[in-house]
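Lab notebook, page 48
Experiment: co-folding of the full assembly
Goal: obtain a model of how the components sit together before planning crosslinking
Operator: M.T.
Materials (sequences as entered):
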Amino acid sequence: MKRKDLILHLVGEISSFLLDEDPRRLVISLHQEENGLHLCFLDENTHTEEELSRIEQKLNSRKRPELAGYYGSMTGHDMLGASRLNLLGWQVKHCDVSSIGSGIKIDIWLGGDDFQNDQFTIPKNGDE
Amino acid sequence: MKENVIENQNKTLLFLLVFIMFSIIVTGIAADGAGRAFNGFLELQFRPARLISDYISERGIGASLINAAAVGMTGLILILIAKVQLSGPTFAALFTMMGFALFGKTPMNILPIILGVFLAGRLVGKSFSEYLIIALFGTALGPLVSMVTVEMGLSGLSAVVVGTGAGIATGFMLPAIAVSVLHFHQGYSLYNLGLSCGFFALFAAAFFRAGGHVFEGLMMWHTSDSAVLILLVPVLSVVLILTGLFSEGKEGLRSFVAVQKHTGRLPSDFMDLESVGGSLINAGLIGLAGSAYILIIGGDFNGPTIGGLLTIIGFGAFGTHLKNSWPVVAGVIVASLIFGKSLTSQGVLLAVIFCTTLAPLAGAFGIITGLAAGFIHLVLVHQTGSWQGGMNLYNNGFAGGLTATLIVSVIAWYRSRNSGFK
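Observation: model returned without errors.
Model output:
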């Protein structure tokens, strides 16, 4: 899959998840490097600590190549029904979920084996 | 800590699966004697395998059970080679492979397809683990390999070479089709490779017919009662339930209840979403429910029906549970009664078992949708077998995928009626 398609599908799935809560504001930020990329999603809906923990758990689920290579193709593509964060979790390198003021910030890093996700990010206050 | 839990679950499942396969071999030898069972097993490798070729009717219980264990062992070895964790999808794939090895799959006719999937992965830079599920379920087209090998008038080495080549070519096409048709029904039909293989088999059958081949109907269906056949699935189901209970106790029961709340939409790995124990209890109860149904209506316990029961047991860890299955099953039964079809007839019996491919529709959209899905499924499945020349063993998966595509299309269209803007 081309990188552009992969980004589109990832953005689609996680946007679908966040839009279920009907936020008035949703910001998506993309930063690309040669061997990886960073996606950041910010909304202004309130989420409980339990919700944040559940989202982070799904996005950081263990890697499942046998599912990612086949069923992962549904990511951001088949939107009838609830969005499925575990489809992303099987494919991404690392995710962070945090509360920012009145909303949520989801950081997703994708990349090859050499990609160091801590090398680039955006400010935690979301004022980029 | 979590890594240790996963490692322990993997060991439990590996031990359980090896124990089941070993027990199946012992049962086969006990039923027919070692000599007859192993000779029959060897003969099955070069027999026609199209629907419906009940191996129990052809070469007896012993040969069929050894073939099932051999096919299951082939799948298990591939999973271990690919270094994929044993979990819901692999559990489902192994039980499906063993089940269909009672009526169509053999080590001889599945290996070329698996090799083809592997080669397709190499072409696009994918590891075998990424296409493992497609390779395991894609063995539904084993009868195509058998047909080219033994039904096309070829003989000796040339038959084996051409049959193997056809299998490799078939497997090579499957990843592309499997990923694409997944979007047709959006994961609401569990046997996606059934739709994929059926789609491919439509073209293959058309080419064979264009070349002058006539698909003669096969109907080998074992009918006589046997205690081994009647008890096989119930005993296996009890083993699964006890394993779930003893390995996790109350947590297993809690997890079983939690499984019933999932829609089942692909990919719902119950072993990952809940627990191995709860999934095994669910799988065992599905096996008992299916066996009880066949006993109550007076249906036959033979290769196809036991194969079907093994398949739904497998999917008890990967999308099927009692709560999302019953509406679809009820839909099939209602349709068969309305259209005057006997509940014990081959087509209806298999449709009742395999229609659970549509269980996610009931799980996600409710009882009425499930009933409608089952109803449509029965009508369609009676036609689809002849379309693809009986070469796709997952004929119910093919019909189920088409049914789910129809229903999902209508729901998606209806939901597009209002964007919410004033």
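Interpretation: The interface with chain B takes residues 61-62, 64-71, 73-74, 77-78, 80-82 of chain A (CB under 8 Å).
Next step: discuss with group before ordering constructs.
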